[in-house]
Write a structure and sequence with these properties.
The protein has 369 residues and is an alpha/beta fold. Helices cover 48% and strands 11% of the residues. The structure holds guanosine-5'-diphosphate.
């Protein structure tokens, strides 16, 4: 075998003398003095919000989203004080699968509704999102024109967590925004799965964005989601897609006839439009405003909001009971053992659940005495 390293001329094993590496921190850079954020009291928050101060509103929303218990308490006090000033808005849920054109549409929808004056907040519910991934609904960069509009407030979805938790935070943010004078609220969600139900439970009008193209539009869409819609809009009705969009609209109209009439007395409408070319947008908003007039006149508007408040009361109870149970130390250590016993058929599911619940209640009793 040839050994080139034995040859004196071979340089492969010579260690070069290195140079001193520069420090990774620039020593000439003066330390930037950033003053610590001043802590705000409940009254500071409430006053700021009522004056429409966007910085304070943002900080209050951060408080609502925080996982720290002390922030939670503070947030609840702020919300409670804002509550009498909330409610004066129309809340619109906007849903559609990724690529349906939600961001493009919300950008033009937003500008359109702001032409009539007032202020718009765009919020989102996306339980799968994480701040770092950059695909967050409600992200400012996706709504180029709206994000620089002085009367808009855009806030991404609270970061990943249970759907109930994420949705509750968005609902509380609605209250803060309304108290800050936002009279139009958009709540955006991805049209897949359970998050529509959550959005539906906090809005006055649920708008479903659909696409034409596959020829069999109704295949992929869940019946439950269609039943929630107060309006279905087929996007990208432009270029040579116009006929397909019209056909899809007819199919949706026919399908809607098969559902029982909604409690609101309003028959959901189906329209085609192009968010990108801003065609048919006015008709969509005429529809929304007609709906609002209609349900305000027949009492359904208030009825729906009351039902939603009731729903959220029970949702909050359920969430907190679950949290309290699963975060209980004793339960934490017992859960796996019981699960194993159930898997080995040593215990029935019901007996295991009863053992766990009995232990939980016993723990509560001990704590209260
Ligand atoms: P999102 O994922 O639902 O937020 O959808 P986007 O708004 O990001 O849109 C997805 C893609 O569809 C982008 O490439 C848009 O330019 C395009 N798009 C959105 N609206 C329209 C439209 O009205 N017509 C056409 N032709 N393309 C559109």
């Amino acid at each position: 075998m040839e050994h080139p390293e034995n040859n004196e001329a071979y340089k492969g094993l010579v260690v070069n003398k290195g140079i001193i590496q520069p420090a990774s921190v620039n020593p000439y850079l003066k330390k930037i003095h950033r003053p610590k954020k001043v802590e705000l009291s409940v009254n500071d928050y409430v006053e700021g919000i009522l004056k429409g101060n966007v910085t304070i509103l943002s900080r209050a929303v951060t408080l609502v989203e925080s996982l720290k218990p002390e922030h939670h308490t503070l947030a609840q006090e702020v919300i409670e004080k804002c509550l009498p000033h909330a409610g004066n808005s129309i809340r619109i849920g906007i849903s559609g699968v990724p690529g349906a054109g939600k961001s493009t549409s919300i950008d033009v929808f937003g500008l359109h509704v702001l032409e009539r004056g007032g202020k718009l907040a765009v919020l989102a519910i996306d339980p799968s999102s994480e701040r770092s991934k950059g695909s967050i609904l409600g992200d400012k960069t996706r709504m180029e024109q709206l994000s620089v509009h002085p009367s808009s407030f855009i806030r991404p979805s609270p970061s990943a967590g249970s759907l109930g938790g994420v949705a509750r935070k968005t609902r509380e943010t609605i209250i803060l925004c309304e108290a800050a004078g936002y009279d139009k609220i958009f709540v955006e969600t991805v049209g897949v799965g359970q998050s529509e139900t959550a959005v539906h439970s906090m809005v006055d009008f649920f708008l479903l964005i659909q696409l034409a193209g596959t020829g069999d539009e109704l295949q992929g869409i869940k019946r439950g989601i269609m039943e929630m819609a107060d309006g279905i809009v087929i996007n990208k009705a432009d270029g040579n897609n116009i006929d397909k969009a019209k056909l899809a609209a007819t199919q949706f109209r026919n399908a809607l006839h098969l559902f029982p009439a909604p409690d609101s007395g309003w028959l959901p409408q189906v329209l085609t439009y192009s968010g990108f070319y801003n065609l048919g947008v006015k008709e969509i908003w005429d529809m929304v405003y007609n709906y609002v007039d209609f349900v305000k006149a027949n009492g359904y508007f208030d009825y729906r909001r009351n039902q939603q408040s009731k729903y959220w009361m029970y949702e909050t109870i359920n969430e907190q009971l679950k949290d309290s149970f699963y975060n209980n130390e004793k339960i934490g250590s017992m859960l796996e053992q019981k699960e194993q016993q159930v898997l080995k058929a040593e215990l029935t599911s019901f007996v295991a659940a009863k053992n766990l619940l009995d232990t939980y209640f016993e723990e509560l009793r001990k704590r209260s005495t």
